[in-house]
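User: Can you fold this complex?
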Amino acid sequence: MTTIGLPSEPGGPVGPLAPEGPLPVLPREALEPSRRASGSFWHAAWYRYRRNYLAVVSGVIVVLILLVGLLAPLIAPYNDASIDLSATLSGASWHHWLGTDELGRDTLTRVIWGDQTSMKVAIGAPIIGLVIGLPIGIVAGWFGGIFDWVALRFFELFQMVPTILAALLFVTVFGVSVWKLALFIGVTLWVGFARLARAQYIALRHRDFVQAARAAGVPTWRIIIVHILPNAVGPMIVYFVQQVPYVIFTAAGFSFIGLGVQDPLADWGKMINDGVSYLQIDALLVLVPVGCIGLACLSFSFLGDGLRDALDPTSH
Amino acid sequence: MVAYFVQRVLALLFTLFLATIAIFAMMHAVPGGPFSFTQGDMTPAALHNIAVKYGLADPVWQQYLKWIWQLLHGYLGIPFEEPTMTVNHLIATAWPITLIVGLLTVALSYSVGLALGCIAAIKHNTWVDSLITALVSTVGVALPNYVIGFLLIEVFAIKLGWLPVGGWGSPKDVILPVIAFSLYPMALMARYTRASTLEVTYADYVRMGRARGLSERRILWKYILRTSLIPLITIMGPWIPQLLTGSIFIEATFGLPGLGSYFTTASLRKDYPLIMALVIIVAATWGLCFILSDIAYAVVDPRVRIEGMSR
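Assistant: Here's the predicted assembly.
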């Protein structure tokens, strides 16, 4: 366990592409046993993650984004709904660092509150996908047979429908609120989670530790949940984080075209929608939310890549 | 081969049929019809009159049968929002716009992506490779296309004033949407091309070719690229329908009056005939492209045989 996947180790996962020639020089840390990750899988993962600066920086940004969302009521400089018709479209100033919109609402305040709204959906939707997909994937992967066959047909059916289209239809039919938006996007994510869980359970169900648990008379539900699930958690976390940028993109997109959150709530997409008519007067109204979406997508995406390399070193 | 194709198309038609039932039922199951927004102030009697005029007062199954009967005759109904036109007419004006943008996007993203991927693979482990890989994973894959779209608008339309902010009319209007729309598929293409080319670059038969003294050019074009491009068909095939049916977000960003923009307005106003028509078109395009890409895969790669398909 201690040597798992140090990237430059000979005989380790160097990938199929390594050309002949001198072996890569091992970094010093890799050779000193004392500095190696010791003990558990999570130690080793943390060790690998820490060395990936891009992932560490993105992780910090992600934490900041989440904190700003949580603490929005405390750090927002103005009341988010306060309309000030004496200061409309003011542009950046000392009073309004990022300017104001056409109703005199402070852009910085709206962006901070928008962070909260966007993150509710960004985290909520994958949770819903996970909650639906995980049990289905487990049943398909563990029991196999007819369960697996039915699940696979469902996967195929659902993958024929473009996900954005499906979410759009739900929004059309059932209307929209923040949580509905999370629900509709989340529902379209379940297939991915189910596929992943199924693959994990198929790979793990014949392993020795499962056989041993069976032989020892552990009940099936306990094997599924206590013995196998922890082994499948790594890829699940990675997949979860990788879905977040997609959700941010979709949710903000819906709000941007007017099918997402409605006034007085704001998310970043809604701010684009509001600001787009004033693009030529004050580009900040659009560029600020656009920048937030871009930054959030990039950092969640790099966080996901970093977690993948750390938690699942052989997959890449 | 023909039998296989027919079988797949029949399966697709059946799926579409089920999908139309599901969507039709879903749309009529919820309160709030298409006219409860625009004509909200009317008396119930007047609303009922409108409902009768558009056949909304009939039982749902009758409406569905009528709709599918019309569909089989190629008639998609009248959009509630613009009763002077037919849905067919709306789509006939909107889809070409989406198609132009989509086809240009396919051409740009696939050719540039392919080139970038090959260059990165040939220059493996040099700064060129690192630069391409870094650009691909940031600008291409991680940034939403409308975010890129707005950045392009800000720089090239507002600050520099070279290109229009949006709209549709002059050939210049195409440039920014196509670039913004291309970046993601281009990045995917570059990433996959690089990976699959690298995989082949160090394969034994390529080394064998070198040992036999073949020219580098011959090795690259005949040995490496020919093999490495095969997987791209399955990977990039499913992207084609997505590009052909357009992106609602790109069309909203640049104010293009294409399919996506009608999707948005139709959804906002619960314009059932228009939504149904759009869903059918998009789903059929998707399904058909999937089938074609499966077949193309089997044709190009002699190692692949599809179950139930004989050539």
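The CA atoms of residues 263 and 275 of chain B lie 7 Å apart. Chain B touches chain A through 46 residues (CB under 8 Å).
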